[in-house]
Amino acid sequence: MKLYVIGIGPGGADQMTPRARAAIEASDIIAGYTTYIDLVRPLIEGKEILQTPMKQEIDRCTRARDAALTGKTVAMICSGDAGVYGMAGLMHEVCADHPDIDIEVVPGITAACAGAAVLGAPLVHDFAVISLSDLLTPWEKIEKRLDFASQADFCICLYNPSSKKRADYLQKACDIMLKSRLPDTPCGYVQNIGRAGECGTVCTLAQLRDTSVDMFTTVFIGNSQTRVIGGKLVTPRGYETK
Amino acid sequence: MKLYVIGIGPGGADQMTPRARAAIEASDIIAGYTTYIDLVRPLIEGKEILQTPMKQEIDRCTRARDAALTGKTVAMICSGDAGVYGMAGLMHEVCADHPDIDIEVVPGITAACAGAAVLGAPLVHDFAVISLSDLLTPWEKIEKRLDFASQADFCICLYNPSSKKRADYLQKACDIMLKSRLPDTPCGYVQNIGRAGECGTVCTLAQLRDTSVDMFTTVFIGNSQTRVIGGKLVTPRGYETK
What we know:
Mean pLDDT of chain A: 95
Oligomer: homodimer
Pfam families (chains A, B): TP_methylase
CATH class of the largest domain in chain A: Alpha Beta
Largest sheet of chain A: 5 strands, parallel
GO molecular function, one term (chains A, B): methyltransferase activity
Protein name (chains A, B): Precorrin-3B C(17)-methyltransferase
Organism (chains A, B): Butyricicoccus porcorum
Radius of gyration of chain A: 19 Å
Domain Tetrapyrrole methylase (chains A, B): 2-208
Order of helices and strands of chain A: EHEHEHEHEHEEHEHEEHEEE
CATH architecture of the largest domain in chain A: 2-Layer Sandwich
Largest interface: A-B, 78 and 78 residues
C-alpha cells in the first residue's frame, strides 16, 4: 500500500520536480486542499479526487489513509515542500497504526527557498524558519523563537505572517526583533511566490514593522551582515573576508 | 547580459526542476564545482565549461561574471538550493559593480528538505538551519546559534557537520544542545541525499553525539515534540491537539 505526500513547489509546473510529477501520475487517487489540487489539474485527468477545504487537515489525512487501505495508490498534494508546515508529519501520525502503508515523502521547493530567490540571496547563511500562526502553537513560544533567533543573528524567514484574525502579528514580531536588530536591517517580502502576481519588495526592518501583508506572503529578515546590492537582498557567506 | 545561479537539487535529474533544466539549456557557458558539473553532464554537451575546484568560490564567481560580461549567457551550477550556503549571495557581491548583468537565482531542493523527506517529517514545525563549518564564521557564533536554537525548541538541521579538520564538531554541537534538550531527543542523519548510497538513520541525541559522520551528511535534531513513528522521525504541527 503506497501513499505519497508530495510537495509540488511554489505553484507553477516548471518548479515541480519530475519525481513529484511521476508520483502524481503513478497515483490512483489525488488528495489535498482544493487550491493545490487545481495547480496540478492537467496531470490528474481521470483520477479520483479527494478534495477537502482548508484547515480540515486531520480529516484530509484520514481520508487519504483510508483510501490507501483499500489498496489504491494515493497522492496527498502539498504546496511548497511536504515536510515544511506540510502534511508529511500529520500523515505519519494518522497512519501510525498502519505500518503496512508505505508513506513516501516527495520533497518540493519551499517558500523560504523560492522567495529568497526572488529577493536575491537572503538565506545564504544560517537561518531560522518561523510560522506566525498561533493556531497550534502558543504565541509565547513563537515570541521566544523570534527573540532567540534574532539575538543569535540568524537570517529569519516568516511563514503565515498574517491572517484576518492576526492582522498585527507581523508588527508584534518586528517589535521583538527590533530589541536586538537595528531598524535599518535589510528585509524583504514576497507575495504570490511562483504564481501570477509574484512580487518581491526590499525594505528595512522599521518599514516592515509598518507594512500590511496577507497570508500569501513570505517575509525575510536579514542578519547583521545582510546588505542591499543592486536592489537585491544579499547575505554574505560568513563574517570574515579571505 | 544574463547570469543564472541554479540550484539543481540533491543530485538526481528527477529532483531538478524543469525551470533549472531550461536555464541550463538556455546557457552558453556552464560554471561550477566539478562534482556538480558532472551531475548535469548529459544536459551540457557542446557547451563551454568553466570548472573550478572546491573552495575557490570567489574565483569561480569572478570567472562566471567575466564570461557574462562578454555577452554570453552563463549558468552557475550549485547543488541543493543556490540560495542556501550556495553561490547566489557571492555572485551578487561579485557583480555589485555590474548592474547590467541580470542575475536570476533559480531555486532548488536544499538538503534540509530532501533529507527530511528521507527520515520522515522532522522539519514540519519551526526550524533552524546551521552550518558547522567555521571557515568563514567564528565558532563562538556557531555555538551561540546552537545554544539559542536549542533553547527555543527549534527543530535543527545541521549542514557541513564534519570534515577532516573538524572531526569532533558534531560532538561539540551535541554537547551544547544537550544543555537544553533531553538525551533521548529523536534525531537522525542522512548520507548521500538523492545520490547512490542514500541512507537515513534515526537515533537519539545521545547516540548522535557519539556518531561519526562525513561532510556529505545532513543532520537533524528533533524538537521537544518530535517522535519516532514506524521508524520515521516525525515532528507534529504544533503543541496542542484539536
